[in-house]
């Protein structure tokens, strides 16, 4: 009985460790200073145009 509880605890801890490792390896999204309003994933650190639609990139509002 005791060995079964230990095995269950080990399995539970193993799954918890695996789920956290996957989150740590996820790529970080870069916050660009300028972005496309139609395609927010497209951006640049200087003014320009969107590579998908050609719209002007707009400046992101500063956090207060």
Write structural notes for this entry.
The chain is α+β, with helices and mostly antiparallel strands and about 60 residues long. The protein is built from 1 helix and 3 strands. It has one domain. The protein has a 3-stranded antiparallel β-sheet, with no helix packed on it. A hairpin with a 7-residue loop joins strand 1 (about 35) and strand 2. The chain is rod-shaped, with a radius of gyration of 22 Å. The protein starts with a helix and ends in a 5-residue tail after the last strand.
Short descriptors:
64 residues, three-stranded antiparallel sheet, 9% strand, 1 helix, alpha+beta, single chain
Number of strands: 3
- Tell me about the biggest sheet? 3 strands, antiparallel
The radius of gyration is 22 Å
**Structural class category:** alpha+beta
Query: Helical proportion?
Result: 25-40%
Strand-residue fraction? 5-15%
One letter per element, helices H and strands E, the order comes to: HEEE
How far apart the termini lie comes to 57 Å
Indicate the mean pLDDT.
Answer: 80
Approximate shape? rod-shaped
Give the tally of structural domains.
1
Extract low-pLDDT stretches.
none
